[in-house]
Each structure stands twice: as C-alpha cells, then as structure tokens.
TrEMBL record:
<dbReference type="InterPro" id="IPR036264">
    <property type="entry name" value="Bact_exopeptidase_dim_dom"/>
</dbReference>
<dbReference type="InterPro" id="IPR002933">
    <property type="entry name" value="Peptidase_M20"/>
</dbReference>
<dbReference type="InterPro" id="IPR050072">
    <property type="entry name" value="Peptidase_M20A"/>
</dbReference>
<protein>
    <submittedName>
        <fullName>M20 family metallopeptidase</fullName>
    </submittedName>
</protein>
<dbReference type="InterPro" id="IPR011650">
    <property type="entry name" value="Peptidase_M20_dimer"/>
</dbReference>
<keyword id="KW-0479">Metal-binding</keyword>
<dbReference type="GO" id="GO:0016787">
    <property type="term" value="F:hydrolase activity"/>
</dbReference>
<dbReference type="Pfam" id="PF01546">
    <property type="entry name" value="Peptidase_M20"/>
</dbReference>
<keyword id="KW-0862">Zinc</keyword>
<feature type="domain" description="Peptidase M20 dimerisation">
    <location>
        <begin position="174"/>
        <end position="276"/>
    </location>
</feature>
<keyword id="KW-0378">Hydrolase</keyword>
<dbReference type="InterPro" id="IPR001261">
    <property type="entry name" value="ArgE/DapE_CS"/>
</dbReference>
<dbReference type="GO" id="GO:0046872">
    <property type="term" value="F:metal ion binding"/>
</dbReference>
<dbReference type="Pfam" id="PF07687">
    <property type="entry name" value="M20_dimer"/>
</dbReference>
C-alpha cells in the first residue's frame, strides 16, 4: 500500500466516530478495501451499528492460521473544544495523522489491512491463513472479542498479534484488571458527636487502604512494576455536620501475572471481615464491575523468536515491553492458550489523551513488520 493510500485510509477511519458506537461503519470502510479480492468476510452483529468482523486471506496451509487482532472502537472526546485539531477530522500535518483513535488503535487496524493487501496485490499466498480480527467494544466490556472467541475465530490459529500501540516494541505481558465497587453502611450522627455514629466514608477508605496492604507482596515485575490498588471514585455524605451512614467507591486494581482475581476477592473478604469486627455497626458489600486476567507470553517460544527476527529484518530495534493496560488479549489468550505478542504502531502514552496523533511512517513500518512475520511462519 502506497503511503498516500495508507494516509487516506487511516484518515477516513479516524473520521468515522466510533466512541462506543458505529463500529459497523468502520467495518464497512475496511471491507471496501478488499472488494473483488479473494478473501472470506464474516460480520458479527452486536446490535444496531455495532459489528465485529473477520477477514480471512487463505494461505498455502489452510490447517494453520495467524490472527491479527485490533479493535475499532475508541473512547469518547469530552474535551473536543480544547483539541488543537478536530478530533474527528483525520488531519495530516506531513508527519503525524491526528485524531481520536489514531493511536488507539485505528493506526494498528490500518497496518493490518496494509499487510494483507500486500500479499493480495502481489498475488502471493501467505504460508498459512491470515485472519484479520476486527473487534467492537474493547474499551468497555470486550463483547466483540468474546463473541469472536466463542464463535471459533481463533480455532486452528498458531498465534495471535494484538496490534495495540507499543511503539513497535514487542509486548510480552500485560497487567490484569479488576474493578471493584464497595458500598459501606454505617450509622449517622451529629458532626459534633462522631463517637455516636459509624462513619461510612471512613469505612470505605479504610477498606481501600487495607486491601492495598493485603495485596502488597513486595514483588516488582521487571516489565510491569507492582500490583496497584487505586481508589478512583468516592461518594457519600449529605451535609458537612452529619456523620455519613452510607458511602460507595470504586477501586481500580491492576494485577501482576500469577495473581488471580479469586485471590484478590478472597483477600478483600478478609479485609471486610476484619473491619466489620473492629467497627461494630459497619457493614460492607462488594461487586465486581470488570475482571480481566493478566497474560504473559513465553519470551523463548518459537513464535517470540520469529517476532524478533521479523523486527530485525525490518530494521526495528525490538526490546521486550510490558503493558500496564489491558487489551483484547485478556479475553481470549487465557481460554485458547495461543502464543501471542502485542505489537503495533503509536505511543501508548497518547492513548485516551487530548491531541492524539500517530506518525504515518510508523504505521507503514508496522505493516511491513506484520508482513515479514506472516511470511516467516
């Protein structure tokens, strides 16, 4: 794919607003790239305007497949007037393509398309089937990748490339994520007599501190740092001079490989029991809002070595990377056991941020790297 064609494709993908809606329109634009070409297209509907899609390029060995995986939704833009450029304008400044989703991750999606088209336009069959798996709803519940998983989109695959932004460094692991809602019920009293009440806000903050301590094993992962517990929302109280009898909060818990959600919840229950025993009249309830396991690849697997060779062949430095955020990998790697790498264009520090932008040259380099990897398998 020529640079001008790649720029046009990525610009048009960014111009399609798909912030929790309208992934079907993005699928339409991508599918149009393959009109008249020998590919198999399957669409999966999640409701009006919300589609996932798998485009399969048949290879010489149809018993094997490599899956390239990318999501088509973006986060919203609540601060559009503060952007330097229209977040849905898809503007190009000669080096960077600007707009919401340019990095996360329509740049990766465009690179997936370009890699497949390189084989098709040259009339070269890849050594194995190439499946382009485009998913809806990664930024929320992951219903797109879950449906593809359940419908067998990853069956027969030898490995998967999750094309999220890594600056073209191979991501071998990502943190798990557990969002936990905690509600506390206490007893109100006059603000001048706190000893006559049971402060629910104090209870919630004590729970957060207790769980943070309970999960602090002292372990530091070389690529992912430490398990973290962040109190991210807090509500409670009706008036300054009233001890609050109800409070609620959410905790964003990011876990290292090896720490399972069941272990986190067991320790949360221990913290609850201890606080309820220490503070008579205080009661807690817990609810899981989101649960994504951590995933880690074998850095010495044949696939990991093939990724390193493809990067080297394309003149890219490599250097293993860990991802602090979760990707679609968390929704199908634990179930399938596939070898995988997280590898894509763009600086992940710009994900979800104002003035998101991606170097077009890096998108092109990603396409070349994917093509080299596919050809080597």
């Amino acid at each position: 794919m020529e640079m001008q064609e790649l720029k046009t494709l990525l610009s048009e993908l960014v111009q399609i607003r798909s912030d929790g809606q309208n992934e079907a329109a993005v699928c339409d634009r991508i599918e149009a790239c393959f009109t008249g070409l020998p590919v198999e297209v399957r669409r999966y509907s999640h409701g009006p305007g919300r589609d996932s899609m798998v485009i399969t390029l048949p290879g010489r060995d149809r018993s094997r497949a490599l899956c390239l995986v990318g999501h088509l939704d973006t986060v919203p833009v609540p601060d559009a007037p503060l952007w330097q450029r229209d977040p849905f304008g898809g503007a190009f400044d000669g080096a960077y393509l600007h707009g919401r989703g340019a990095v996360d991750m329509k740049g990766g999606a465009a690179a997936m398309v370009a890699a497949a088209l390189a084989f098709l336009r040259e009339g070269v069959l890849p050594p194995l089937d190439l499946r382009l798996c485009f998913t809806a709803d990664e930024e929320t519940s992951g219903m797109g990748v879950c449906l593809l998983r359940d419908e067998g989109a990853f069956a027969g695959a030898v490995a998967a490339v999750i094309c999220e932004p890594t600056g073209l460094r191979p991501g071998s692991c990502e943190k798990g994520c557990l969002w936990l809602e905690v509600e506390a019920l206490g007893l109100s009293s006059h603000g001048s007599r706190p000893e006559l009440g049971v402060n629910a806000i104090d209870g919630v903050t004590a729970f957060a501190a207790g769980l943070r301590a309970a999960l602090d094993s002292g372990e530091t992962h070389p690529l992912l740092g430490r398990t973290t517990v962040s109190l991210t929302t807090l509500s409670g109280g009706v008036k300054t001079n009233v001890i609050p009898d109800t409070a609620s909060a959410t905790l964003d818990i990011r876990t290292l490989p090896g720490l399972k959600s069941d272990d986190v919840l067991a320790r949360a229950d221990q913290v609850v029991r201890a606080l309820e025993a220490q503070r008579p009249g205080l009661k807690f309830s817990l609810r899981v809002q989101n649960d994504r396991p951590s995933v880690a690849a074998d850095p010495d697997s044949p696939f990991a070595l093939a990724v390193g060779e493809a990067l080297a062949a394309c003149g890219l430095p490599g250097g293993e990377k860990g991802l602090y955020f979760y990707t679609d990998a968390s929704q199908f790697i634990p179930q399938t056991g596939l070898s995988f790498v997280i590898l894509g264009p763009g600086d992940d520090a710009l994900c979800h941020k104002r003035d998101e932008r991606i170097p077009l040259e890096e998108v092109a380099a990603a396409a070349d790297c994917y093509r080299a990897l596919i050809a080597s398998l």
